[in-house]
Structures
1.
Amino acid sequence: GTLLYYMCAFRYPFDAKVISDLTRRITQSTYKEIPSIYSNEVKCLISAMLNKNPDKRPSINDIL
């Protein structure tokens, strides 16, 4: 999810200078939406892949 987000937005969905801040942002914050040139399907895929609950993330077979 992070890699696909980066490929679309040219920035990381979560960024910080120290690991403790990065961990907090990953677990507690949201990310900015990717640019509007991308389809809703791509946005939904990124959203699913970055779901905070690992059990709710799609499997590789779901993605394919």
2.
Amino acid sequence: MIPRLYIESPLAAGAVVDLNPARSHYLRDVLRREAGATVLLFNGRAGEWQGSIERVSKAAARIAVERQTRPQQATPDLWLVFAPIKRDRIDVLAEKATELGCRCLWPIFTQHTAMTRVNTERLRAHAIEAAEQTERLDVPEIRNPAKLGELLANWSPDRRLLVCAEFGQALPIADALGRLPPAGAYAVM
């Protein structure tokens, strides 16, 4: 299996990508790759590219970009709006939402949210790891937390908001989804 790495750098044939120490450590010590090994790179803008490791050390790595293996593809315009949950579970939430193709993850604080802060950098790291492992070509946007009232007051009418609330005689989710137009911008809360 060829490892995939998300990078911020532009990608094109003949380009050279220098990895920071953290990514170099991951490539060398976690993935156990050496000079000459093949890797796949993506940045969320230019598709997936094959590259070859020119050098790798604990402090730095350099990858020569060779050829595009897949063009960039748009992900569905689906957001996940959620109340933060405990640390281990929010990590899994970011991973699974990324695997399922969500374009944006937006934590919100409700009246009864027990968590008081969200580590968005940690969420982004889990989203990047999930994108690398699932052959996704982009990483979802991780928004800064907002209060529910502020979010709803500023909600764009162009994006349909599906609220998954557990009360009353609600429709089963499959029935509710069957009544919606198939295309468009959606968010699930």
